[in-house]
Design brief:
2 domains; 5-stranded mixed β-sheet; Methyltransferase, Cobalt-precorrin-4 Transmethylase, Domain 2; alpha/beta; about 250 residues; Cobalt-precorrin-4 Transmethylase, domain 1
Length: about 250
Amino acid sequence: MARGGKKVIYVIGIGPGSTDYLSVKALNLIKNCEVVVGYKTYVNLIKQLLTNQQVFTTGMRGEVERCHKALQLASLGKTVALVSGGDAGVYGMAGLMNEIVIKQGSDIKVEVIPGITSANAAAASLGAALMHDYVTISLSDLLTDWDVISKRLHCAGEGDFVVAIYNPKSKGRATHINKAQQILLQYKSPNTPVGIVRNAKRDQQEIEITDLANMCECEINMSTMVIVGNSKSYIHGNKLITPRGYSY
């Protein structure tokens, strides 16, 4: 597993969770590694791939603990897969794992295996929502101050970007999506198309097509991706289309 005998931690994006959307490399690494480390909800999504592997899981907010465990086990010569939902490099575990290895001066290699992030999964389900310039913005203020998030929403609205909103709502952040809506309404038409996708590309997937004025009336939770179109985006049937600009 480790190249040339060098110790490696594989940080693997598992996408939506189904093996249908898992890359061949990610699939093989998970099957053949000695240890799988991850958030318990994500590990449960790939439990059919786990046979004789040692498994270490934590609950929410256990990211630092998981990275330290992965580093500890890799230091012992174990082949370690640190799994992350979606793409490990998009609000995932890749950044933290790299930071910890660098801070500790470890010679362990961190190899990131990409996965399908929620924005891309949701956009595919909507049709073609991200065909032009877009930004991703997380509404979670656990690690980023709301003032910074607000500034980024203003910039995205002023720039007429398609906006893919991660972590739109939780029990502790019930009104952040309303604040985001009000900021974007300063720049975008109330009729701007919005796609609401819950559990994108999972068996429980649900889709609602609405507009910016009414998006907060939809069911939105932590498993939801909200994609707000740009001034050229339009709705056709159950699809949200953002034109690239081709003549045809």
